[in-house]
Automatic annotation (TrEMBL):
This is TfoX N-terminal domain-containing protein.
């Protein structure tokens, strides 16, 4: 997922020192929390893993859209359009929601690197 560099820079700044690990994932910038994929950038949109209940609420409130890249929406994930994270406070709120949900998931250990 190609990332807008300006959005990535804003997320990187807002997420610093929060325990997230940045990785290049599926062709774009992504952040993992306790080994779990948590936040990504898809073009100029945030992708946030906030859980089914919070995702449904955000969608119903018009703050997000279902994360649907393949024709099948991903449960618990949302697309957040730029106007819905245009201030640092809004962006931090999405990061907080994501961290709150992903912290409830079992931590994943790093995968062992294979020799070639």
């Amino acid at each position: 997922m190609p990332s807008d560099p300006a959005v990535s820079k804003r997320v990187r700044s807002a997420i610093a020192d929060r325990g997230f690990e940045e990785r290049f994932f599926f062709g774009g910038d992504a952040w993992f929390f306790q080994g779990n994929f948590a936040i990504g950038i898809y073009h100029d949109q945030l992708t946030c893993r906030i859980g089914v209940d919070a995702a449904n609420t955000a969608i119903d409130d018009g703050l997000a859209r279902p994360m649907d890249i393949t024709g099948k929406p991903m449960k618990g994930w949302v697309f957040v359009d730029p106007p819905d994270f245009d201030t640092k406070a809004k962006l931090v709120d999405w990061i907080d929601q994501t961290a709150d949900f992903v912290s409830t998931l079992p931590a994943k250990a790093p995968k062992a690197k294979t020799k070639k």
